[in-house]
Design brief:
About 10% of the residues lie in helices and about 35% in strands. The protein is mostly beta strands and about 350 residues long. β22 (about 330) and β23 (about 340) form a beta hairpin. Keywords: Membrane, Transmembrane, Transmembrane helix.
Length: about 350
């Protein structure tokens, strides 16, 4: 239920069904997970939750984790750091609202920020003479996107090398904004503030960045990466260079005088002109979003070699071949480095269904 206070942050009460809201740019959901809390017997459940939240608000990560019995580690804990905690919220109230047993209490907490208030509920358990927080974290997932990093508030983390778009991260309760522009790399709108709080039904926040516009320096790095890929491909002496190369012949050549040459051998590729490319955010492929390459000035390569013409005579030839970049796309990391990735847009040159040299197909 949303707060009645004007401009309040979104608030969610516990529900009995799982919902995974996807966030495009502005987040319209509040996420929650059950929490269990830890404190010495000198603190009751309310004081435990208050101390835990106060430590988070003060960016005292070690102090907050002292109240947690099972601390996350590895990639999952990448955002349990001071940089990922915003400083524009504070604790308003902490109230015990019920007990199931003498050793298990439910505690409601209210926090406030520039946009209003939000509330959530914690489960606090006593074990071995101390109150302990169990799983007091909110789960957030970043599906695949054209950038190979994720950002939570001011914390930027590269996605794991084996990232498949299903990595989940733990966050402390609090107020969060995701993504946002990285100067000199990409421009994008940061998401609106979302209150991440515990709840009886653990929900997972799915965060997708708004439209990404590459910076000028990033486009220049793309062009350098494309030129380097073309140069590498031009070193091959085969009809179809390997390695997602943007030019190939299927084994036959049409010469300028109208003859078709086959049985090709002694081949060399030479770059005539490099293409001029730019890049645009492309989410058309659900499981492999990336930057699409847009050609503003086409490029070409020359293929020279020997073969047998249609009359059965040996011949030499040199033909111009197009550079076709529809089979490549790009991703960008937080430093602006560009990685070219294959995209099934124009066939597989190694299967013989990709030809940029034939004049008559």
């Amino acid at each position: 239920m949303e707060s009645s206070r004007p401009g309040a942050l979104p608030v969610r009460e516990p529900r009995r069904r799982f919902v995974a809201p996807i966030v495009f740019g502005l987040i319209g959901a509040v996420v929650a997970v059950w929490i269990t809390v830890a404190v010495a017997t000198s603190r009751d459940p309310e004081e435990t939750v208050e101390a835990y939240l106060s430590a988070i608000a003060e960016k005292d990560v070690d102090g907050a984790l002292e109240f947690v019995s099972d601390v996350p580690y590895g990639d999952t804990a990448a955002f349990l750091t001071p940089d990922a905690i915003s400083d524009d919220w504070w604790v308003v109230s902490v109230t015990e609202v019920g007990r199931e047993y003498s050793s298990s209490a439910r505690v409601k907490a209210v926090i406030a920020g520039p946009g209003g208030t939000a509330e959530g509920e914690f489960e606090v358990n006593e074990y071995d003479d101390e109150w302990t927080l169990w799983d007091p974290f909110v789960t957030v997932r970043f599906p695949a996107s054209p950038v190979s990093y994720v950002r939570v508030n001011d914390k930027v983390v590269p996605k794991p090398a084996d990232s498949n778009g299903f990595e989940s991260y733990d966050l402390f309760p609090g107020i969060y904004r995701f993504y946002g522009s990285v100067p000199g790399v990409v421009d994008t709108q940061r998401t609106g503030a979302v209150a991440a709080f515990p709840s009886e039904d653990p929900d997972e926040i799915l965060v997708v960045p708004s439209t990404l516009t590459p910076a000028k320096d990033t486009v220049e790095r793309l062009r350098k990466a494309v030129d380097e890929r073309i140069d590498e491909c031009a070193t091959f002496t085969t009809p179809a260079p390997y390695g997602d190369c943007p030019f190939a012949t299927d084994g036959d050549i049409d010469t300028p005088d109208g003859k078709r040459v086959s049985d090709l051998h002694g081949l060399t590729w030479k770059v005539s002109t490099y293409p001029v490319v730019t890049m645009t955010d492309d989410r058309s492929q659900e499981f492999s979003p990336a930057f699409a390459l847009s050609v503003t000035s086409p490029g070409s390569v020359a293929l020279s070699g020997s073969g047998e013409d249609t009359d059965g005579n040996p011949t030499t030839f040199t033909v111009n071949c197009e550079i076709d970049l529809t089979g490549l796309r790009a991703t960008v990391d937080a430093r602006g480095e560009v990685e070219l990735t294959p995209f099934a847009g124009s066939g597989d040159p190694n299967l013989g269904d990709f030809d940029t040299c034939r004049r008559d197909t």
